[in-house]
């Protein structure tokens, strides 16, 4: 898992981390994900080829009573060597199916403006909800806008 996250950060993916990014940073992050999974507020979906993890996506769920119908897509990542094979689409379709099983009928997400992922989300039926300028630091230290999407399942 750590090597996938490091690969994503080092390739410039907008996944919440900036370079330099180290194995210890990844281990701390995944420890937090594991804690969230154990408490039931996060689900992790993996795409594997044998023992190798090619990609993953997370479904984050609020436990607030007014948002129990909602889930958030987080950290859609595909190893650079495995991109262009439909893995991200398959991960998102699995996430949507899981969300429905969990009665999460509204899915929200954000991604860096201009990322190729925006095209994926639109092709999967997500609606553009807006843009926030200067939202996050890029891996090279520049502020970038994020775009918001949603889908009712």
From TrEMBL:
Tagged with keyword Transferase: yes
SUPFAM superfamilies, per the entry: Acyl-CoA N-acyltransferases (Nat)
Domain N-acetyltransferase as annotated: residue spans: 1-153
Single GO molecular function: acyltransferase activity, transferring groups other than amino-acyl groups
Organism superkingdom: Bacteria
InterPro entries in the cross-refs: Acyl_CoA_acyltransferase (IPR016181), Bact_Acetyltransf (IPR050832), GNAT_dom (IPR000182)
Oxidoreductase found in the keyword field: no
Pfam families: Acetyltransf_1 (PF00583)
Keywords: Acyltransferase, Transferase
UniProt cross-references to CDD domains, sorted A to Z: NAT_SF
Protein name: GNAT family N-acetyltransferase
Source organism (scientific name): Shewanella canadensis
Species classification: Bacteria, Pseudomonadati, Pseudomonadota, Gammaproteobacteria, Alteromonadales
């Amino acid at each position: 898992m750590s090597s996938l996250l490091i690969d994503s950060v080092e390739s410039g993916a907008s996944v919440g981390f900036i370079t330099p990014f180290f194995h210890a940073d990844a281990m701390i992050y995944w420890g937090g994900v594991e804690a969230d999974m154990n408490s039931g507020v996060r689900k992790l979906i993996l795409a594997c080829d044998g023992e190798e993890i090619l990609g993953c996506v997370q479904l984050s769920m609020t436990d607030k009573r007014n948002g129990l119908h909602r889930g958030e897509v987080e950290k859609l990542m595909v190893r650079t060597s495995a991109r262009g094979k439909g893995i991200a689409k398959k991960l998102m379709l699995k996430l949507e199916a899981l969300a429905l099983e969990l009665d999460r009928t509204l899915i929200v997400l954000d991604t860096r403006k201009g990322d190729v992922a925006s095209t994926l989300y639109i092709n999967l039926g997500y609606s553009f909800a807006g843009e926030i300028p200067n939202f996050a630091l890029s891996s090279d230290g520049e502020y970038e806008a994020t775009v918001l999407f949603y889908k009712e399942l």
